[in-house]
Amino acid sequence: MKKLAIVAVCLTFTGPALAESVSEKTGLNSLVGASPNTQDFVTQAAISDMFEIQSSKLAQEKKDAKANEFANKMIADHTTSSDAIKAMVQSGKVKADIPGSLDSKHQSMLDKLKGLNGDDFEKQYRSDQISGHKDTVDLYKRYAKSGDNADLKAFAEKTLPIVEHHQKMAEDLAK
Q: If exposure means fewest CB atoms within 10 Å of the residue's CB, which of 18, 25, 35, 116 is most exposed?
């Protein structure tokens, strides 16, 4: 009941299109299990890919030996994911804008990683990977279930097992 009240308040004070975006950004859609709209999915998936690639390159630079194989996999798989989304947008199959840079939350996380070394870096990198993949699994599940663009929905369905595997790998890495 409380969840419905929150949704009602959010929808009352914002316009319909804005409510979806605000709801996704604040985590409200995730809380109630609502699917993100196409633009929100593309934005969040692209930012997730950018963060995974940049933070994993940083792990390679910082010589996090235990995470090196994981980082290589993250760079390869998230580059593939980014390329697939870009191709769908460029072909016109998906009507959305792809962000060119990280949002402030992910940029702050990356900046924090840049300032860490050794065990501190390794702990933070692993923690970021677990929480990031948890969020990404949730995003992909919700879009795969009821996304509003058939091509992007098929992409989310196909990619979800890969992201779930990444989450398991991140959890194993932290052990």
A: 18
